[in-house]
Design goal:
With 1143 residues, the protein is of the alpha+beta class. The chain has five domains: 229 residues, Cytochrome Bc1 Complex, Chain A, domain 1 (2-Layer Sandwich), CATH 3.30.830; 184 residues, 2-Layer Sandwich (Cytochrome Bc1 Complex, Chain A, domain 1), CATH 3.30.830; 201 residues, 2-Layer Sandwich (Cytochrome Bc1 Complex, Chain A, domain 1); 188 residues, Cytochrome Bc1 Complex, Chain A, domain 1 (2-Layer Sandwich), CATH 3.30.830.10; 68 residues. Helices cover 41% and strands 16% of the residues. It has 38 helices and 31 strands. A seven-stranded mixed beta sheet has the order 1-2-3-7-4-6-5, with helices on both faces. A seven-stranded mixed beta sheet has the order 10-11-9-12-8-14-13, sandwiched between helices. A hairpin with a 4-residue loop joins strand 5 and strand 6. Helix 2 packs across helix 5, helix 10 packs across helix 13 and helix 19 packs antiparallel against helix 20. The chain starts with a helix and ends with a helix.
């Protein structure tokens, strides 16, 4: 206690969103220089911690790109005082997590765990007190063991291979390719096998140690803790475990001195202040030839005005002005008038530190490619003329309006989707500047205008300085056939795509005549008195479980129902803040869910969404959400979701349904240009789904294979080509004369009168006896299928999804046993499959929830192993899990497996995990953005999932099934082993397995030999062996030794006899076969031993290979489902239960 009194602290006065109103914040600097932010958050039992270090990829030596990232991986493998490196696995056993990431100039290490969780980590009185000494030791004295180097190089390489399929990562790399080659930002940052294998593991270890000792000093670090503990308790934890960081502290600053961290310069060859990030007369346009959806990203260097007093409000005003979607907006000009784009999105992109670009993302139409210069010129002209020449008074009014909108959105913003989001953001910004952390806007990041009368001039100054033809940067994602500029295509070294660099002259683009320099008119009446109403609200944070409560949202209450609708309402008893979420799912049970009908419904939603973009944009600006979904649950259906204030939700719903009715009524007589645009967008969406990455293909294939009536993107594309005016007229007549059934779920208060207008057709004549809900496919007992998906040409990653069918979702006991088994799989998979077997950097596992069935899956993407090898390894791993359970006595089973599982379930009950089943990947076809996934929305989706499935089990989480703790406590070792023996054991004739795999396009063997040839060529160069890389690859391709390619030396020695002695020496020194095994290219299986015997048991069921999902459907059955008449009877029973206070 005496020590804590010596550490001065500051209690900042932060402007907080209402969702964060229960939090208390304290800033302090430890005597060793470590900057800390401590957050007392009584609304959650979760403890989160993050330590950010002011070093990253900028500190990589030029000859070992990726060293910072690799060191981050090595640090988490253990410390000198805790060598096992098993903290991550033990945290997972308690429902927590441990991870890290590296950016250009920062590295962050973080953990999260429930304070209620069982202590599986150490001997401390609580799990948190056991975690902190280990976590601190990783950052104080990491082991950095040489034997882990080759393993983690493969992990880094796997991570990079995943980035190659990430559109945003590829676009960000475009900035590096445009940057000044002399600037450190231009270098490859992640690292891969090639960049990290240029020198020996021993040398890598030495460099990692040097990098760590130079940069990981407390003065260069920041710490953020957030948890339910008091600030005093958090302070004691920090002082107890983090005072040892740094052995020779420098002169300590006082918190009031305004600490700012400096850039570490271990390997920084040039100061960023001495070299321009971009060359003014250099390339300004780059075309990336990738399989992603076409995109034009236009960026302006707003960081040039970073020191401006009103920088933040100026940037926000420009984002709002450029992102408007009304009739006078830039979006309307480029899409409606010119027809060059289908959508526009404006945001700020941080490249590193405080270097930011204002980005305008455009989704181009086909005509855009021949008007690229005009598009950029039009945007700059709009900025200079419509905004730059706008009357001062008008621009000030707009700036004030947008400032109020931003303030409203900040105050009303919901808590972060996960607790860690806040902690990581604060840790990064605290690391950049302690002085900024003392400012009132540190949490909200919102700064208002210091003088609104100066807003107009400040905005115009930024336009004149930053938004010019000579400073603009354009990054284009384009298919190979699109011609932009006649330049040489270059093969990118790290991501593998082709690209073209050019300098386009936007000054000489065609001039456009702006007859009127207009800007969108502010809609001040929408903001009205909302800010004052919000400030007068008393909202308790509802982001997570309040300690002692199982749930904050009450189970939905059946408000009204008949044979045309059911209306459910749920309320949040912890808040008086009026925010609604309303979803209306409209099902057309008499319209067959054929490919043609499905496509026309998609077309109808596309048309409606296009009509609504302008009218609903004003509601988007105040944080409201709207989304349109079609063909939900494999039914002919349309779903509408809205959220926001009561006034906003009611207005949006009425507007949406009026537009739906109007559009449906004139479907076959719609204007040709609008219909063509909608068809083009649909075709593009179907093509993107068909040509998605291997990981997405595998996940999507599971629904096609295991759900009844799924229509594939290929089938939709074929049907779209056949849809003509006659089809539209026929569908319209059927649509307007059919019955509709509404399922309405509302979270919050909504006037009942509004709901009476939420019909499209309004007809009701009862259900036919034959109408039923769609169901799921049931694999026959003893089946073992291997389904192979199509592969995208540029995707060189093997992906395997191993799915074991468990049974019916309605079987509560079976679900609980499966959940327990999944817990054991999830807590051991990363350690066993990634670290021990080195299969992949990423290993995913979970429950796959289908309409009526469910199962357990393990998904592994790997750049190093063939699908067959991955499948074998998963099969072996599942047997290891069985062996582990078998080895425990009944008492050990209960104490070491069952109790930690119960604790992990309890801690996860407050977290918003990803949904399973219907809502796992569901996104709006049209709307204001992606489907919201905050905690309140997760509850809403969960309730909606139960209602649409007609199961009504509202106590469940994450769109799964409810579980009963008492039922879990009663699980015995014998019962659990019987479950494993029946459903998971390879000899079981009741086990049903589906393995879905996507092979790399070039074949795993070719990839491996490419990597090996590169590695050998580099080693030969250092030994003065003059053999080119192509010859080495050719020898490897002819090699007969499939295990280690050992014949390659014999082939090379015959071809290059004068190099024979040197080759022999290299073969002996490197022990070629073992070398290849070391870098992870062996094709051999692991020989898994346990208690002196091999525990891998061959499956008694032969694997059936197929690529036609119809074959699996023919050989399987369909799970029992519910008739719609039975659904109505079930609602009657629910109403009776409610009336008797039983339900």
């Amino acid at each position: 206690m005496s020590l804590s009194l010596k550490v001065s602290s500051i209690v900042p006065s932060y402007h907080l969103p209402l969702a964060y109103s229960t939090r208390n914040h304290t800033l302090l600097v430890l005597p060793n220089g470590l900057k800390c932010l401590l957050i007392h958050d009584p609304s959650s039992e979760m403890m989160c911690g993050a330590v950010t270090v002011n070093c990253g990829a900028f500190n990589d030596p030029p000859n070992v790109l990726g060293l910072a990232h690799l060191t981050e991986h090595l640090i988490l493998r253990g410390s000198k005082t805790h060598k096992s490196g098993s903290l991550g696995r033990k945290l997972a056993e308690s429902g927590g997590q441990l991870n890290a990431y590296t950016t250009s100039n920062q590295s962050c290490f973080y953990f999260q765990v429930s304070t209620f969780a069982a202590n599986t980590v150490g001997d401390g009185p609580s799990i948190v007190e056991s975690i902190l000494p280990i976590f601190s030791s990783y950052l104080t004295c990491p082991l950095l063991n040489e034997r882990y180097v080759s393993q983690e190089i493969l992990a880094v390489d796997d991570e990079h291979n995943g980035n190659r399929n990430n559109q945003e990562k590829v676009l960000f790399h475009g900035y590096r390719l445009l940057a000044n080659p002399k600037h450190v930002f231009s270098r490859f940052a992640t690292g891969n096998f090639d960049t990290l294998s240029l020198i020996s593991s021993k040398k890598i270890k030495s460099m990692a140690k040097s990098y760590f000792s130079t940069n990981f000093t407390p003065q260069n670090m920041s710490l953020v803790f957030k948890g339910p503990q008091t600030v005093l308790q958090l302070k004691k934890m920090v002082l107890s475990e983090f005072m040892s960081l740094g052995s020779s502290p420098k002169t300590l600053p006082h918190p009031n001195d305004g600490i700012s961290t400096s850039e570490s310069t271990l390997h920084l060859e040039v100061s960023k202040n001495e070299i321009d990030l971009f060359i003014t007369e250099g390339p300004n346009t780059i075309v990336l030839r990738t399989p992603f959806a076409p995109k034009i990203r236009i960026s302006f260097p707003i960081y040039l005005m970073k020191q401006t007093e009103n920088y933040n409000p100026t940037v926000r005003s420009l984002c709002n002005l450029l992102g408007e979607e009304g009739p006078e907006s830039l979006s309307s000009l480029l899409s409606t008038e010119k027809g060059w784009i289908s959508s526009l999105f404006v945001f700020v992109q941080t490249l590193y530190s405080d270097v930011q670009m204002l980005v305008i993302d455009l989704e181009p139409t086909k005509s855009a490619w021949s008007h690229l210069k005009e598009i950029v010129h039009e945007i700059i002209s709009y900025l200079k003329r419509n905004i730059g020449e706008c009357k001062e008074e008008t621009l000030n009014i707009l700036a004030d309006y947008y400032s109020k909108l931003d303030e409203y959105n900040i105050i009303s913003q919901p808590a972060s989707v996960t607790l860690l989001d806040d902690v990581l953001d604060y840790a990064e910004r605290l690391n950049r500047s302690f002085a900024d952390a003392m400012q009132p806007n540190f949490i909200s990041s919102f700064k208002s205008w210091s003088n609104i009368s100066a807003a107009s001039q400040t905005i115009k100054n930024m336009i004149s300085v930053c938004f010019t033809e000579c400073l603009v940067k354009v990054i284009i994602l384009a298919p190979p056939e699109v011609s932009v500029e006649q330049t040489i295509r270059i093969q990118e070294e790290y991501f593998g795509f082709e690209y073209e660099l050019s300098r386009l002259d936007f000054d000489n683009s065609p001039q456009f005549d702006f007859s009127e320099k207009k800007l969108p008119s502010p809609r001040a009446e929408i903001v009205g008195n909302m800010i004052s109403r919000l400030k007068n609200s008393t909202r308790i944070s509802t982001s997570h479980m309040v300690r002692g409560f199982e749930s904050e949202l009450l189970n939905p209450h059946l408000v009204s129902y008949d044979q045309s609708h059911e209306i459910w309402k749920s309320t949040n008893p912890q808040t008086s803040y009026e925010n609604l979420i309303v979803t209306v799912a409209i099902r057309f049970p008499h319209i067959r869910a054929s490919a043609t009908n499905s496509v026309i419904l998609d077309l109808l939603v596309e048309l409606v969404g296009n009509e609504l973009r302008g009218p609903l944009y004003d509601f988007e600006k105040i944080g409201s959400f709207w989304g349109l979904f079609s063909n939900i649950n494999r039914c002919s259906s349309i779903m509408v979701t809205t959220s926001g204030s009561q006034d906003a939700v009611e207005s949006m719903l009425l507007q949406i349904f009026a537009t739906l009715r109007e559009t449906a009524d004139r479907l076959n007589a719609y204007p040709y240009a609008h219909l063509k645009k909608a068809r083009v967008n649909l075709r593009k969406r179907y093509e993107q789904s068909k040509d998605c990455s291997n990981i997405t293909k595998v996940l999507s294939a599971s629904y096609v294979l295991l759900e009844e009536g799924i229509i594939t993107p290929r089938e939709k594309m074929e049907s779209l080509e056949l849809v003509d005016e006659k089809c539209l007229k026929s569908f319209k007549n059927q649509f307007l004369n059919t019955q509709e059934y509404l399922s309405v779920v509302k979270t919050g208060e909504l006037n009942t009168s509004c709901l009476t207008n939420l019909y499209i057709v309004g007809k009701n004549y009862g259900f036919g006896k034959e109408l039923r809900d769609p169901s799921s496919v049931v694999l026959r007992d003893g089946s073992f299928y291997l389904f192979e998906t199509e592969t995208r040409e540029d995707d060189n990653i093997s992906v395997v999804m191993h799915y074991t069918q468990i049974g019916s979702r309605s079987d509560t006991s079976l679900f609980v046993l499966a959940k327990f088994y999944l817990y054991l799989v999830s807590t051991t998979a990363m350690d066993e499959l990634r670290i021990q077997r080195q299969l992949s950097y990423s290993v995913y596992s979970g429950l796959r929830m289908f309409h009526r069935q469910f199962g357990i899956y393990i998904l592994i993407p790997s750049a190093w192993h063939a699908c067959s090898h991955l499948t074998d390894q998963v099969e072996e791993f599942l047997q290891v899990v069985e062996e582990m359970v078998t080895s425990y006595s009944e008492e050990e089973f209960h104490e070491q497996l069952l109790l930690p599982f119960i604790q992990a379930l309890s801690s996860n009950s407050s977290e918003c995990d990803a949904e399973s089943g219907l809502f796992a990947s569901l996104q709006p076809q049209k709307g204001s953005g992606d489907k919201p996934c905050g905690p309140e929305f997760c509850e809403h989706w969960n309730h909606l999932n139960q209602i649409l499935n007609s199961t009504y089990k509202f106590k469940s989480k994450n769109c799964e099934e409810p579980w009963d703790v008492n039922l879990i406590r009663g699980i015995s070792r014998k019962e659990f082993l019987e479950f494993i023996g029946q459903h998971m054991h390879p000899k079981s004739l009741q086990r049903s397995v589906l393995v879905i795999c996507s092979h790399p396009f070039n074949g795993i063997e070719f990839q491996r030999k490419q990597v090996v040839s590169r590695n050998l060529f580099q080693k030969m160069e250092r030994l003065d062996i003059n053999i080119d890389e192509d010859s080495i690859l050719d020898a490897l391709l002819k090699c007969e030794n499939a295990e280690a390619y050992g014949d390659a030396f014999r082939i090379l020695s015959k071809r290059y006899p004068n190099q024979k002695i040197k080759l022999k020496r290299l073969q002996l020194e490197a022990q070629f076969g073992n070398l290849l095994l070391k870098v992870g290219v062996s094709l051999g299986k692991f020989s898994l031993m346990k208690n002196g015997r091999r525990c891998f048991v061959e499956s008694s069921v032969p694997m059936v290979r197929c690529s036609d999902y119809h074959q699996i459907h023919r050989e399987s059955s369909v799970a029992p489902t519910m008739l719609l008449t039975e659904k109505f009877e079930k609602l009657i029973r629910i109403e009776e239960y409610q009336e008797n206070s039983i339900y």
